[in-house]
Amino acid sequence: MLRMKCSFIIIWIVFFIFSLNPCYLLAQKEEKIDPDVFFQDFEEFISIIKEIQNKYVDEVGLRTLLMNAYKGMLAGLDPYSQFIDSQNLKELKIETEGEFDGLGIEVVIKNGFLTVLTPIVDSPAFHAGVYIGDVIIKIDGKSTKNISIPEAIEMLRGKTHTKVTITVVREGESEPVDITIERAKIHLNSTRGTRIVDEEGKIGYIAVTSFQDNTIDDLDVAVKELQKQGMESLVLDLRFNPGGLLNIAVGMADKFIKKGLIVSTKGRHKSQHHEYKAHRSKTYKKFPLIILVNNGSASASEIVAGAVKDHKRGLLLGTKTFGKGSVQSLIPITNKNSALKLTTAKYYTPSGTLIDGIGIEPDIKVDLTQEEVRGLHRHLARVNAADIRTKNGKEPIETNDEKEKFVDAQLARAINILKSKSDNSETN
């Protein structure tokens, strides 16, 4: 009976592998893998399942073992590939629409540790003082060692008004810090802080916080509003922007670049080789442009920054970007209401530069100290809160902190450059 059960498992797993990848047989032929070796490896896998089911201290169902195996397989590939079960798949779809319950942080596995890529501006995590690069070593007292991204998200997410405590270790510090955060409804407003930041130079400012379905429309509205106010040049702030949808990043770059390549993707197979080009009809009227970036600018942000830099359409100012330049495809699993989020290609800037694991260097480097970064967090949170109150027809609340004027060194440098270049030669 046990032999029959194991044989059924082998047949089921082989069928599962074939169904995941239509190119599987072709790939096996190209790589000239010995079928005998292939099935020997599967026999080892089945032997492990059998030993666990027979001898583990608690009874474990086959479905649980297989689910854990899928998660382990994907986690072992890179920090971004994941097995997504039905619950997490539903949350992923909700997140791309721009609203979900949680803390408002993007996390990755970096050097084996659960690391904050960036906190979303004005989120509970942002207000609680979670910073870029914080290593989360515990969640509610439970170690994050060997944790997967889906497991971490499941622990961090939760109903609005519930609390979670994360223990973080910060760069340059040895003592862990406990941060208790109350979860809230996260609204991913694509743009914030739209305003004229220098009346004399008619310099506009727009911060883009994410690349979601509505981002291009939000950007159009913001640019038109600034143009009505006489905007002659623009600072586009992509700091703390973890990215989002590829097509939205291409669409945003298309707004600034009239023609030519925006980004290309390359994978193992020709089907994953794509070139995304600009369309003249969608481009804004040309104006001097500076894009602010930092190590929290990732993925889609890097596509826009790389395209603008390579086409010399504007200047990048700040610090080197994160270096997340890979394409994740969502591959549904038939009849299981689950999916693979699988890295299938990598991004290349128009000049052919690989983004992944490297990042993009700014044209003008303006470093910030840790204290300046924390001050910037507090400042952006105040500005965003005031922006929201103004949109709702309410007067901004002045705090004691605001009486001590914070100087955003990177924004100030961008404004000075735009003001000093009357011929705009460096930003055209």
Structure description:
This protein is of the alpha+beta class and 428 residues long. The chain has 3 domains: 2-60; 99-187, PDZ domain (Pdz3 Domain, Roll); 191-427, 2-enoyl-CoA Hydratase, Chain A, domain 1, CATH 3.90.226. Helix content is 37%, strand content 24%. The chain contains 13 helices and 19 strands. The chain has helices spanning 2-20, 24-31, 35-55, 62-75, 86-96, 124-128, 149-156, 215-228, 246-254, 300-310, 370-391, 400-403, 409-420; strands spanning 82-84, 99-102, 105-110, 113-119, 135-139, 142-143, 163-169, 177-182, 184-187, 191-198, 203-208, 233-237, 261-266, 274-277, 289-293, 315-318, 326-333, 338-348, 364-365. It has a 6-stranded mixed sheet with strand order 10-11-12-15-16-19, with helices on both faces. Strands 1, 13, 14, 17 and 18 form a 5-stranded antiparallel sheet that branches. A 4-stranded antiparallel sheet has the order 6-5-7-8. Helix 9 (246-254) runs parallel beside helix 10. The protein is globular and about 75 Å long. The protein starts with a helix and ends in an 8-residue tail after the last helix. The model is unreliable at 1-12, 14-29 and 422-428 (pLDDT under 50).
Please specify the SSE layout and strand pairing.
Layout: H1 2-20, H2 24-31, H3 35-55, H4 62-75, E1 82-84, H5 86-96, E2 99-102, E3 105-110, E4 113-119, H6 124-128, E5 135-139, E6 142-143, H7 149-156, E7 163-169, E8 177-182, E9 184-187, E10 191-198, E11 203-208, H8 215-228, E12 233-237, H9 246-254, E13 261-266, E14 274-277, E15 289-293, H10 300-310, E16 315-318, E17 326-333, E18 338-348, E19 364-365, H11 370-391, H12 400-403, H13 409-420
Parallel strand pairs: 11-12, 12-15, 15-16, 16-19
Antiparallel strand pairs: 1-18, 2-9, 3-4, 5-6, 5-7, 7-8, 10-11, 13-14, 13-18, 17-18
Helix pairs in contact: 9-10
